[in-house]
Amino acid sequence: xxxxxxxxxxxxxxxxxxxxxxxxxxxxxxxxxxxxxxxxxxxxxxxxxxxxxxxxxxxxxxxxxxxxxxxxxxxxxxxxxxxxxxxxxxxxxxxxxxxxxxxxxxxxxxxxxxxxxxxxxxxxxxxxxxxxxxxxxxxxxxxxxxxxxxxxxxxxxxxxxxxxxxxxxxxxxxxxxxxxxxxxxxxxxxxxxxxxxxxxxxxxxxxxxxxxxxxxxxxxxxxxxxxxxxxxxxxxxxxxxxxxxxxxxxxxxxxxxxxxxxxxxxxxxxxxxxxxxxxxxxxxxxxxxxxxxxxxxxxxxxxxxxxxxxxxxxxxxxxxxxxxxxxxxxxxxxxxxxxxxxxxxxxxxxxxx
Length: 353
Ligand code: SAH
What we know:
alpha/beta; eight-stranded mixed beta sheet; five-stranded antiparallel beta sheet; 13 helices; 16 strands; 24% strand; binds S-adenosyl-L-homocysteine
């Protein structure tokens, strides 16, 4: 049994079951045993769009250059990435943005990253870029417009789950039996207003205080300072029923309770609720649109043709990567793209209104 599991078992034996959000928080963020604190999981456990192809980040770079120009090309702005992984997306953004040297000069980069292990990888991969790190968005100065990207960041934030039992919602908690951690229902009912009570017996709903809190704060900052945030993640356009809590290790689904801290834990992002909280902060919301449609609108096929002409021997790999990013059975429709902007942006590239 690993050390973190012992800690969690002791906690539950003493104090009773914990929420799924508390469990996720410990498993992902515990300073010495947490999943992200201790390792670089990219490539080993899962792969993300920027790691599939450089084209992903290059198109986002062009999106940002366009948005910056539409905002009047501010002389200074904060270019912020939430959960930057290996720094690959930011490196590709910079490469593409070189077509506008004034954009590169005006950008002050902040990476919002909690993992010391990943900060090291980011420093190495972004050697040529001046970077500041922050642990939370609150640390970013409010003195200039904000241009923010977050790819597969919101799915890593802790969720709670509720289950409908004979007309009454109960919270799904993490309890212990012997040395096994497992889901058990809180006996007391939960007063829950978000989802209609006609939910069928056994229905599960999820909510993430962490995600909604961050979405509303991000929107407030964007309205205050001006700017845009681009959020890319797997998830659903409309709030619904379903248990999307999952653990992935070495590219396979695994038991989320077997070895806490050794597998990536995520849940699908509820874009409808993120949008609701962003709008409540007076921000404009664009999309969500499927990732495939977004990348196609930004010209992924043309960019792929150019790359193939420059590197003909990699043509098959480039085609495979484009199919992976845009294909409906791959990342093209499960992944969504949503932007949050200040009122200045009636339109943004990639979003058909
Ligand atoms: N965006 C990257 C990596 C996605 S993995 C890519 O697309 O490849 C999730 C990232 O979010 C990791 O960098 C992880 O360390 C970071 N992260 C997870 N929870 C976080 C939190 N609460 N605050 C800041 N960063 C977090």
